Each structure stands twice: as structure tokens, then as C-alpha cells.
Amino acid sequence: MTSLRIQERFVSVQGEGALVGAPSSFVRVSGCNLRCVWCDTPRTSWAPEGRAVELDELVRWCAAGPRHVVLTGGEPMLLSPAAELSQRLRSAGHHLTVETAGTVWCEGLEADLISISPKLSHSTPWDRAAALGKPKLATMHEAARLDLELLARLIERFADGWQLKFVVRTRAPELLTADLDEIDAIVTALELPTSARDRVLLMPEGTDDATLRAGYLAAIDACRTRGYRLGLRLHIHLFGHTPGT
What we know:
Strand order of the largest sheet: 3-1-2-4-5-6-7-8-9
CATH superfamily: Aldolase class I
Oligomer: single chain
Distance between the termini: 29 Å
């Protein structure tokens, strides 16, 4: 039987993106080709854990929950069985969101919404990897974190349902400016029309109410002037920075 290594699965509400607030079943795979310095799911990347779960069991589990299903990670696109799972879930009538960093192509993958989180340069864990005595982790991440050709291919493949989510640093104006410059360069390189800019979300870095609120306020002007969308992080406001939410 075909299986996926699953780190956790739970039912909650979507906390980010265009479907924020929608009751959803979350299936989180374990395994990632990146090592973001601020990764909020380190048990799928820095210290991966989980168990193999047969696709039949996952389909049955999702059938007992909401219509909306989120396949997330880690990086689901690394695992070829994710394509079969996506096909089966959509055939069963689920609305499927697939969360990806946009660095890997998964042949046969289906999705109603492809939620792409390209990683900016501040995500590279130079100091963290060095402190662990594993500098190659940072080198690996930096080499893989951004693939403009693949991003364009994903947007074309899922033209009817895509979003780009960028984590931005808002604790200092110069950091936000640097991140916005990178995002603007990516949007320009992808030749996104002005009408599509509301599919580009700015998500302030932070894991508590106060930090996020300050981040939202700091990012508002950039949204106004550029046409980007402010990306809320509802799950943190509701449950805190807690697994399984």
C-alpha cells in the first residue's frame, strides 16, 4: 500500500492566506529540502519525525472532517505519493490547498489552491548552521530556496488558484525595506500583472499577538502602495505558537 510519512494531522481553521478562517483538515508531511532559520515546523525539517500512514487511512480521515483540506509540511512536493493523495482527495469532493516553498515539482499533483511561500535571503540559517557545526545546511538552503523558473511554472499550472506568501521582517524599517526590494524583484521577474498583486501576501515574522500586531501596522503602507495583501496569522492569535493548530 502507498503511504506518506506524516508528522501530524488535525482539524482547525485555516490561519493564513486567502482562505483564512475556513474550517480545514490539515495533513502535515515530514521532510523538507530547506532549513529556514525561523522554521515554525522544525519537526518536519531540522529534526524530522513522523510515521508512515497509508493513503487509504488519510482519505478516510479527511472524509470525516471539513470539505477543505490542507496538505502541508515540510515540503509535500518532495514526496511522489502526495500526487496520488491530492487526486484522491479532490475526486472525493474536497477543496485542496497544497502548501509549498515552490522549489520542487511534483508530477501529477492536483490542487484547488497552490499556496507558495518563496524564501527570501533572510531565511538562510548561516549562523544557526554554523553553531551546529553543519554549515552545509545553510549552503544547501541558499542554493535551493528560490527558483524563479519553477515559480513561474507553478503559477501557470495552477493559474486559477495560486497565492504567494512572503515572510517579512518588520522589527526595523531597514529590514522591511530589504525584504520588500527582494519581493518586488521576484514579482517583476515573474511578470505578474497589477491585477494579480492581491495574490501576493506579506506575512510579518512573529509568534505572539503583540509582535504580529506591530508587524501588521508596519506592513500596511507597503500593501497600500504596492497592491499586495496583508497576510494575517489567525492561528497564532487564536491558539498561540502551538503544534496541531
